[in-house]
Amino acid sequence: MAVFNHVSFDEHEQVVFCHDKESGLKAIIAVHNTNLGPAVGGCRMWNYQSDDEALTDVLRLSRGMTYKNALAGLTMGGGKSVIIADPKTQDREALFRAFGRFINTLGGKYYSAEDVGTTTADIMIAHQETPYMAGLEGKSGDPSPFTALGTYLGIKAAVKHQRGLDTLKGLKISVQGVGHVGYYLCKHLHEEGAELIVTDIHQPSLDRVATEFGATVVAPQDIYSQDVDVYAPCALGATINDATLPLLKAKIVAGCANNQLAEPRHGQLLKDMGILYAPDYVINAGGIINVSFENNYDAAKSTAKVEKIYDTLLTIFTAADAQNRTTGEIADEMARAIIDAAAK
Ligand code: NAD
């Protein structure tokens, strides 16, 4: 397993492999870049099939956080952590206490938070061992509604740019994954009159959006080929790949999932197919923006900053058209300019 030569290493400042014999914790903490401030990014708990898979995930996610935080205008660097374990593990006290102790050894260079497979309760356990946890109960709390708000506004920006429309009323939108973020996203979309087609692998979550928002449920493998205006990936990453691209009928891809493109070249393929792509780390920044208000929490200020995602995306879409480049290239370039300026 290569680390320094890993294809996703991308000049990470620090990568920490953590093992605690007592609790059985196996984790990797990745700090990508701290030019703008301490690295902040969530902790994902997942049943990775290999250490290599976990390393690849944490490196890609961590780099994404650097770019996300920069473009969202936050004074925070990028990092991420993964715990290699079944997310349904029942005995979490010892595990997350051990995780918290490892976070503490970094002395504030990295702050962790909730992500896929972890909950606010887990974060509170780790917080007993370290002050360097974010998204705490009684402070900024669950980031998901803010991620959903940013994603909803990002979809509106894409529809405005491509179709000149100010409303989603009557548009068909497919949502893949109706978990924490997907549920709130569906709520916004439904309230604006969009028609929802949804999928998930968790039946109770599907039942909820079908009942509350009149969503049509399809099987997971059928979500790509739906005849919709917008496809919103809101489950896991890499769902835009060689197998799914030929199936897509949507002309917009805009959702909250991290690392939606299996490889960067899939951004170019989307462009070639005339599909407008909202870069994942731009559209899904609402949650981390909310976390950035953790101290002296102010929901109104947080909401106002999340709402800027709409304008940021319009800027990216317009520049991509003008320069005949992908939206991902434009977003990366804008983010890198901010990160490099902070280094000087
Ligand atoms: P979640 O775990 O609550 O929801 C994900 C949902 O996807 C679950 O309901 C799960 O059953 C479903 N799912 C998993 N595999 C699936 C498959 N193959 N087909 C269909 N559905 C499947 O997670 P979340 O917090 O809602 O996050 C969703 C995505 O958004 C993740 O990629 C996450 O990294 C990203 N994200 C979340 C936040 C946040 O604030 N929670 C912020 C930024 C990015």
Protein described:
The chain is an alpha/beta fold and 344 residues long. Helix content is 42%, strand content 15%. The protein has helices at 51-71, 93-105, 120-127, 144-163, 180-191, 203-213, 265-272, 280-283, 286-291, 299-306, 308-323, 327-343, and strands at residues 14-20, 25-33, 39-40, 43-46, 77-84, 110-111, 172-176, 195-199, 216-217, 230-233, 252-253, 276-277. The strands form two sheets. Strands 1, 2, 3, 4, 5 and 6 form a six-stranded mixed β-sheet that branches. Strand 7, helix 5 and strand 8 form a beta-alpha-beta unit. Helix 2 (93-105) packs across helix 3 (120-127), helix 4 (144-163) packs across helix 5 (180-191) and helix 5 packs parallel to helix 6. The longest helix has 21 residues, at 51-71. The two termini are 34 Å apart. The relative contact order is 0.13. The mean pLDDT is 96.
In N-to-C order, the SSE pattern is: EEEEHEHEHHEHEHEEEHEHHHHH
- Give a quick account of the main beta sheet: strands, pairing sense, barrel closure: 6 strands, mixed
Shape designation = globular
Q: What small molecules accompany the polymer chains?
A: nicotinamide-adenine-dinucleotide
SS element count, helices: 12
Instruction: Name the beta content range.
Output: 15-25%
The gyration radius over C-alpha positions equals 19 Å
Give the terminus-to-terminus CA distance: 34 Å
- Uncertain regions spanning at least 5 consecutive residues: none
GO molecular function: L-leucine dehydrogenase activity
Keywords: NAD, Oxidoreductase
Enzyme class: oxidoreductase
Domain Glutamate/phenylalanine/leucine/valine/L-tryptophan dehydrogenase C-terminal: 141-344
